[in-house]
């Protein structure tokens, strides 16, 4: 029994040493997805489309705000001429318009608003292309893993020799100028 325990302990130590040695032998690298995105021509198109939509929606929001201000100015100018009942009706209309403006902003620019949804819709195919290219580069170079420098995953120092961003661009068929 004692021999068995010694053999079991020795085999456990050997397995642990082999695992540690194997972990240190793995090859790692990093990429910069921000750099890759900025070089990808589709990203510029996505950004332009999002900017166009954003500008349109901002104009709509500004128009709502302008209407509210005009309503308030008109109410102030006519306040002395209005009965209490008429004043309250106009205040209710202004409050309703303000609620509409807030609802529009939340629906459009909120956490799960139209802007966010459109951004996700437009970026998803591009992200898939880039991920597939990253996957091919990592497999071709025998990498155990890649860090994303743009994501700020705690990289304090990066040796340019291990930057695989150029390989990903090449895999995507994009020439770095």
From TrEMBL:
GO MF terms here are: unfolded protein binding
**SMART domains listed in its UniProt record:** OmpH (SM00935)
**Annotated signal peptide:** 1-25
Keyword Zinc part of the UniProt annotation:
no
Q: What single Pfam family name could you report for this chain, choosing any that match?
A: OmpH
Protein's GO biological process: protein stabilization
Coiled-coil ranges (or none): 47-81
Keywords in UniProt for this one? Answer: Coiled coil, Signal
Show the GO cellular component annotation of the record: cytosol
Q: Which family does it belong to?
A: Belongs to the Skp family.
**Name of the protein:** Periplasmic chaperone for outer membrane proteins Skp
